[in-house]
């Protein structure tokens, strides 16, 4: 099954993320080996519709978070960037009930942790 | 100051040794008495001073609760609301607060939980020293982004870290607008003693792959004592206390009414516009008690 999601050309991190979830047109091209270290393809498919929806929202948040982190590295005292970070933190707090609920599911837990690891590398 | 810290640590170790010795003695004594009630009771193993592992009935054994449990340390010290006030007019940038903090928490000199920066508000004004600990914000962004609740806000105002939960994602470091959090990339040098149980209130908190920062020394507050940086400041520039009691104290023992001090000295909080509600107040550096510092171009 192929799905097409339109996104800006420069949005590489989002594409990588979506590839992980098998939601992009490149799903069929993602080799099993690329995912084998983290999660089985079949397990990704077993994510519920709710979980997939949540992860898309979370992924969007992560993209913004990464952007702010990149700015922080070059302009640590940028006040606008700091305010943006505070806003993103407030947004993250709202995700917590869903994360706590979904983390009870092992499949989600593995995928979520993989996503976190990806982002941690940017910090 | 260094001696004072040494004394406290020595006292702590002495107390620990005394408790262990008492436990060993109890075990030895019970063994010597050949008590019969051990057969049908729940037994606990105790190591004697001779190195023998013996069993004694649980009801004869009193466990020493030297440290608070993890659950207690997540709640905080009941009825308290800790607050810090730093008088910039008194700070001469000696860095003794940083040293005392490092000694208190067994942190190497390369790591500073409390940094002393040189600040200059504008080209027309003279630079001044600015000690920067964790601000223990009342609305902390760091705790909000932590996906595993490893860093959390306690009822007593302290923002603590539970390194048993921390997964090392460093989201909290990224979210902290004051950049006060540090990451342990390598195995830290552990002290000679081992604390009874893992707790965010432990003296030694460093752990490879985890984040650490100033913790407002809750282990000292539990004993009614001042944090390491406060007792390390020879200029009496750092005050610490309880907002609920409306009082703060410095090394000399001078205790001031918090609300009055903040009002009379026009206290402010760092980057207040961000709305994080820091629990550290600064008293502006006027009528300074030290020579104007040379501005380090790298300092901000």
How would you characterize this protein structure?
The complex is a heterodimer of chains A (123) and B (300). In chain A, α1 (12-21) packs antiparallel against α4, α4 packs antiparallel against α5 (79-102) and α4 runs parallel beside α6. Helix content of chain A is 69%, strand content 0%. With 123 residues, chain A is an all-alpha fold. Chain B is of the alpha+beta class and 300 residues long. In chain B, β10 (238-242) and β11 (247-249) form a beta hairpin. The longest helix of chain B has 32 residues, at 2-33. The chains are: A mainly alpha (123), B alpha+beta (300).
Counting DSSP H or I runs of 4 or more residues, the number of helices of chain A is 6
Low-confidence stretches of chain B: 24-39
Rg over C-alpha atoms of chain B, rounded to the nearest angstrom: 22 Å
Question: How would you describe the shape of chain A?
Answer: elongated
Which series of helices and strands of chain A comes N to C?
HHHHHH
The number of distinct β-strands of chain A equals 0
Mean pLDDT of chain B: 85
Oligomer: heterodimer
The helix/strand class of chain A is: mainly alpha
Please bin the fraction of helical residues of chain A.
55-70%
The radius of gyration over CA of chain A amounts to: 15 Å
Number of helices of chain B: 8
Distance between the termini of chain A: 35 Å
Low-confidence stretches of chain A: 1-11, 21-39
- Largest sheet: number of strands, sense, barrel closure of chain A: none
Q: Supply the helix-strand structural class of chain B.
A: alpha+beta
- How would you state the average pLDDT of chain A, rounded? 74
Largest sheet of chain B: 5 strands, mixed
The number of strands of chain B is 13
What's the arrangement of strands in the largest beta sheet of chain B? 12-11-10-3-13
Q: Which band does the percent of strand residues of chain B land in?
A: 15-25%
